[in-house]
Amino acid sequence: MNSTEKRCHHEPTPGMLISEISKLFHDKMNQNSETLGFKNGYRQILRYLARKDGVTQIDLVRATHLKAPTISVTLKKMEEEELVRRVTDEKDQRQTHVYLTEKGREMERAFFGKILETEKILLRDVSAEEKETLCAILKKVRANMLSEMGLPEDWRPRP
Confidence band (pLDDT; 50, 70, 90) for 90? Predict the structure, then answer.
């Protein structure tokens, strides 16, 4: 009998644990969005623009893996709430660049603070050495999945 057969079918596998933790983290981020008073759909756009302000809408589609109509509708709502502003490119009228407003930056900073708070909870009883080991293992796991799926090493899920 091999080790897989010996394992009780109720004992979670590493993949199951990763999935559960991911779901819990996602749910906590949704909760944090609501606490801060913005829609969950804004998170990905806010996070991306915080890193690369002034990108085109098509850049946002590529970066977030959201459909172009979804980005367009979401940006319209965000613009109405004064979180972003869209500016038509002077050289190419077909392109629109998206910028965070100060209000959008404040919201993103507050949300990023919630991410850091949640990470502290995740790693509460984990030593620095264990955290380093965990990150190294997770990077290997991620690389295995990217390779298996034929995705580039710099692939990122929706923020």
Answer: confident
Among left, alpha and beta (phi > 0; psi -120 to 50; other), residue 8 is: beta
- Look-up of token digits 């190294």: 136
Coil, strand or helix: which one is 84? strand
Average pLDDT of the segment spanning 22-50: 88
Supply 132's token pair: 């380093």
- Containing structural domain, residue 104: 38-122
- Number of domains the chain contains: 2
Categorize the per-residue pLDDT at 157 as very low, low, confident or very high, splitting at 50, 70 and 90: low
pLDDT, mean over the chain: 89
Token pair for 135: 């990150």
CATH number at residue 61: 1.10.10.10
DSSP 8-state secondary structure symbol assigned to residue 93: T
Task: Indicate if the pLDDT at residue 123 is higher than 70.
Answer: yes
| Type of residue numbered 141 | V
Q: In this structure, are 112 and 80 located in the same domain?
A: yes
> Is 79 inside a domain boundary?
yes
